[in-house]
Amino acid sequence: MTSKLRNLLYLFVLVCLASAVVLYADPGDDIDDFLMQRSVDRALVDYVDKNVVATLSRLVDELQALEAAAHRLHAEPTDANLAAAASAWRAARATWQLTTPFEFGPAAQYNFDKQLGAWPLDRPLVEYTLTEMAAGRLTLDATYLRERVYSTRRGFLAAEYLLFRDGRPRPARDLRPAELDYLAVTTEVMRLEGTDFLAAWIGTDALSPAQAEALAAAGFAPRTAYADEFTRPGHYASRYPSASAPLQEIMQDAITVAEELCPAIDEVLDSDDPHAGETWYSHNGLADLQGILQGLENAYLGGLAGTRGRSVSDLVARLDGVLDRRIRIALADTAYRIAAAGESGPAAPRALEVRRAVSACEKLAARITVAVPLVTMHPSALPWAIYGVYDMPSTM
User: Fold this and answer.
1) SS3 at position 238
2) Which long-range contacts (CB under 8 A, 24 or more apart) does 203-209 make?
3) Is 145 part of a structural domain of the chain?
4) b/e per residue 255-284 (b: at least 16 CB within 10 A)
5) Is position 303 within any domain?
6) Closest CA to 341 of 327, 329, 358
7) Residue 276 and residue 120: Cα distance in Å, rounded?
8) What is the pLDDT of residues 305-357, one digit of tens each?
9) Residue 392 in contact with residue 236, Cβ under 8 Å?
10) How many angstroms separate the Cα of 77 from the Cα of each of 161, 177, 379?
């Protein structure tokens, strides 16, 4: 056989093999990848709309209610008005805890967690500020508090210190005039910074006219919509090169929240020390833990209860239905165990319930960890690279 004939025969064999691959390839793989990609796209949109934006919108409403309650207390310092302000603080605090699983993006870039939830409170400096105010050497306003006062002297824990002692609202007669002034300004700044947090996700242009005007009057810079980048990975104007990158943000923050929650359960619930958690004056530790877990559930299931859409849970279920059910069970079991530990009373049974709660939480963290590569490294999410790998095209 001549060399030329042999080469022609090899070419014929290769063509036949290639044809066989095309003819017998399973078209279902491409269809599954396409359907998974559509599910990912919808899950990212609903994660933003039904979880992040819905939570921040509720937070802004509740911070506005807290500010209004603080002003009523300032105008008429009665026990009833102080109790109402304390109740408004607890409601806003509960919603604030729901934001814990999305501390990436704007929360990290603009330090919203630090501005609203800095811990621990710098009580000596708060008292020094109150002394200066009482002596007439300092007039506190929102601009001064935002721009010249450390974050450890404002936010949720500053408002808590002014409203609570030993887990209960303070008697109104105990509040000094300077404390009433400080509370009014603190809650005003909290409302402004909560609104700015919302603006960072949806864009200042999407705020209500009153909200946008309030931020502009206070000197806040306009924000572009981070949601546009997050929900359009691969677009030239997005920092996310593919769907894998925002999914990694969601899943890695979920793991971080779960892993930090487990020791916090032990620290807060297996102790009689009111300083074991963050909320030393309201003793809100149990509610804080429950809020963080609820935020994690919202992130996994696709938003606030009653308004949920497509979710990370749906993505996991498409790939491993058993794992998805195990994560859901672990979420419910952890919630049940935290509640049981918080209500268990004497030290011995409480210690047992706390160990059970920590164990349930550790199972939850482990199961979420298993889900990460399933979702973020699925072929529909290619490429799997994270930030900094690709040069983004110029938008000029």
Assistant:
1) coil
2) 203/227, 203/228
3) yes
4) bbbbbebbebbbebbbeeeeebbbbbbbbb
5) yes
6) 358
7) 11
8) 999 999 999 999 999 999 999 999 999 999 999 999 998 777 778 999 999 99
9) yes
10) 16, 9, 61
Number of domains making up the chain = 1
Q: What is the pLDDT of residues 72-117, one digit of tens each?
A: 999 999 999 999 999 999 999 999 999 999 999 999 999 999 999 9
Map tokens 């109790």 to a residue: 83
Residue 9 lies in a domain: no
- CA dist 257 and 260 (Å) reads 5
| Other Cβ atoms within 10 Å of 58 Cβ, number | 17
Which residue do the tokens 């497509």 mark?
Answer: 310
* CATH for 216: 1.20.1420.20
Q: What region does 155 belong to: left with phi over 0, alpha with psi -120 to 50, or beta? A: left
CA dist., res. 234 & res. 80, Å (int): 54
Structural domain boundaries, residue 60: 34-381
In a domain, 191, yes or no: yes
Q: Which two tokens stand for residue 13?
A: 């064999």
Distance (Å, whole) CA 242 – CA 385 = 8
Token duo for residue 15: 């063509």
DSSP string, 158-171: HHHHHHEETTEEPP
